[in-house]
Specification:
36% of the residues lie in helices and 24% in strands. It is built from 14 helices and 17 strands. Helix 2 packs parallel to helix 7 and helix 10 runs parallel beside helix 14.
Length: 434
């Protein structure tokens, strides 16, 4: 067989629920990222429904055009899960039982339902004749890989994201690395910034994005902008690891203090680690973010060493009774109101004092869509910080097109960045107005 003559890979997502928006496709982005790290960037993505022949049509179109096709979904126990049968038909073969797969499925069904399993449930333990099974330790539908008539390899993975990712890591990724990386020396790195627009980050590294080796990419996720770097070691340029580290140093030079982390690090993990290093503690006080800041901190292992208390003081009365904010800041002539510098500072100071913490971090703002005024539009957020060096607040205007959820998420990122800068002795987070 000839191998696929094109370059890159194709990713196919199967399911009517994806086409009509009932379920968000979490698999395509994940697979694209993993494939990029292996030096096999995605050349095409497609989403197909569950109709008869839809999957067969798209793999026939991709076969021979790209060396690798990875699909997700269509392997479950229902009548509309047609992937394994359509692949078998395209190969001119039938289906065969995966050794050791069917009986455990039958036992599981009997345990759950106290009756014998139907045939369509047991179909999850079958694959096209000649395929190689990919075990699913996170669910019931097995995946498989097989070579198509025109030489492309097809990897079929289950649709639920947890299962898809598990099967990929258990058997898919190693196969792709061995078959398509071809012994290439590759190294991959991610470098993260926050609270700075993507355009501002891009302007600092524009020339690097044009390089052939290493290959750069830039993506924005809310307030976070990440730069991906894929380096390949060549005889005349050194090892991939050396090239990657050279560009890591270059990015630090270009981006300075807006570069806060690398690879799988999260901003909250960086903050927790820094607090723990100096044996310092944190308390949070939130209004418009509704507990998301405290939640972000406590997702980090080891947060119990540094996180003392958290308050969600949504009502003004709660800010007064729980944090000791002066009621005069809310009512009366000339009062600045809940979304103001004074209230943000008072919330942070109240949290710090009442929790006995080294730092108090507070957020108050307008997440919308209601509650805005001409002076304080939706997305207006004050972030207050109280610490050993004093107290202050910064005004940040969040990106309102992201909606209420985006405003809350952006406010959490800004608050964590404000604290990171304080902990490292960096310049304060710059105010951002409309």
């Amino acid at each position: 067989m000839n191998s696929g003559s094109g370059s890159g890979a194709a990713v196919i997502s199967c399911g009517e629920e994806l086409l009509d928006g009932r379920v968000q496709d979490a698999n395509s982005c994940y697979l694209a990222s993993r494939l990029f790290r292996l030096g096999l960037p995605v050349a095409e993505m497609a989403t197909v429904g569950d109709g008869c022949g839809a999957f067969a049509e798209v793999i026939a179109r991709c076969d021979g055009r790209v060396p690798l096709i990875v699909s997700t979904g269509g392997l479950g126990p229902t009548a509309d899960d047609r992937v394994r049968q359509e692949v078998a038909d395209s190969l001119g073969s039938g289906l065969e039982e995966i050794p050791g797969a069917v009986e455990p499925l039958a036992d599981l069904f009997r345990q759950q339902h106290a009756v014998d399993p139907p045939t369509h449930f047991l179909a999850q333990g079958f694959q096209p004749v000649g395929a190689v099974a990919l075990r699913n330790r996170a669910g019931t539908a097995w995946g498989f890989r097989v070579e198509l008539p025109k030489g492309s390899w097809l990897l079929c993975l289950p649709g639920p994201p947890g299962e898809c990712h598990q099967v990929w890591l258990d058997g898919g990724e190693d196969f792709v690395r061995e078959r398509f990386a071809g012994g290439r020396d590759l190294a991959f790195g991610l470098f993260h910034t926050v609270s700075v627009p993507e355009s501002a980050v891009e302007s600092k590294i524009r020339d690097l994005l044009e390089l052939g080796n290493p290959r750069y990419g830039i993506t924005a996720h809310g307030k976070q902008v990440s730069i991906s770097v894929l380096a390949e070691g060549l005889a005349d340029s050194g090892s991939a690891a050396d090239i990657l580290e050279e560009h890591a140093r270059l990015l630090h030079q270009r981006l300075g203090d807006i570069l806060w982390g690398r690879d799988e690090e999260s901003l909250e993990a960086v903050v927790v680690r820094r607090l723990a290093l100096h044996k310092q503690t944190l308390a949070t006080a939130e209004s418009c973010t509704g507990g998301r800041l405290g939640h972000a901190v406590t997702t980090v292992s080891g947060a119990s060493e540094v996180y003392r208390f958290g308050w969600v003081t949504y009502a003004n009365e709660a800010k007064v009774s729980e944090l000791g904010v002066d009621a005069a800041l809310f009512d009366g002539p000339g009062a600045p109101g809940a979304v103001s510098e004074g209230v943000a500072v008072a919330m942070a100071e109240g949290a710090r004092q009442r929790a006995g913490a080294d730092f108090g971090l507070a957020v108050t703002g307008i997440a919308g869509p209601s509650g805005a005024t001409p002076e304080k539009p939706v997305g207006t957020v004050w972030i207050g910080l109280a610490g050993p060096a004093g107290s202050y607040a910064v005004l940040r205007q969040q990106w309102t097109r992201a909606g209420r959820n985006g405003i809350q998420q952006g406010s959490v990122k800004d608050a964590l960045e404000l604290l990171r800068r304080e902990l490292l002795g960096l310049p304060r987070l710059a105010p951002r107005r409309r």
